[in-house]
Amino acid sequence: MSGGVDSSVAVALLKDEGHQVIGVTMQIWPPGKDEDRFGGCCGIGAVEDAKRVAHKLGIPHYVMNFRDIFAQKVIADFCQEYRSGRTPNPCIRCNQYIKFEALLEKAKGLGADFIATGHHARIEKDEAKGKYMLKKGVDPQKDQSYFLYAVTQKQLSHILLPVGNLTKEKVREIARELSLPVADKPESQEICFIPDDDYPEFLKDYIPQAAEPGPILNEQGSILGNHQGIMFYTIGQRKGLGISAKEPLYVIAIEPERNAVVVGSKEQALGNELIASDLNWIAITRPTQPITAKAKIRYRHPEAEATVIPFDENKVYVKFNEPQLAITPGQAIVFYDGNIVIGGGTIESARKAEITEKEKEFA
After folding, report:
1. Which of 57, 65, 74, 352 has its CA 20 to 30 A from that of 271?
2. N- to C-terminal Cα distance for the chain?
3. 121 and 225 share a domain?
């Protein structure tokens, strides 16, 4: 229970189905920080909202401490990725290692059969294949299947997603009918453990030694300006570069070995190929031949037709039919067949110079 309307309505739906429900809120915000500034499912306010809902619905509610593992698996990785010039997606790691691994194990230890969340996605058993299928939520504007691609078959067999068949408006309607105190609570759009959504301040606080100034270059290597640390930049970024030019400039590469940020035109920010690693396949076994799929390179990016070519045990070469803007190392790429999540992985490289001839030979 994150204190939001989705997980609150999930409780109500499960109770209606006759389940014995226990409410759990994960305590993951770093101790000693300004805890009241943490948002989303991290803050003290979230705990209080979850408690009020649990009381209203007549279920027990517990706060469980996951601070250490969250710091190790999510926050440390988040900082290291930015320090390496990559742009991570901490929500995916939280689902992978905290919610559906650490919390699931703790829930099993308490005798629970399932863990349920308020994610807008669906899980269905395909009896013919003997596999659990992860599918998009019915509300296309709220679908969160992208964030769940790393969940395993074993984990899917113990997960319930009660609101995946509902639109967001229907969820709020149910919450109002039940007079839940969070019925009209606004959605949090920020990463929960970053106070006030201030990335630079958070990174300066956690890895101050990484804020090392360096050059902003064009593709020819000419110095156009200076940056205050590569961790403050992401691929596709336009604002805050502090340099003037005749045309809009985008970050097209981040090079930690040179401590450099490379900028270029919008055309130079387009790409149609990438290498992805750390793959998880849900709907199929690991492919040994090329497959076609719709691929999504970040959460709000439209899906695009692509060919996915395995060339290593845990790597694929992805070729898009049309160029994509700002393919970003560190972000997830998720493959779809209609509403079904085929699988996904982490974008490792997207620049032509990094997609080596050797890798293309395998492809």
Report:
1. 74
2. 44
3. no
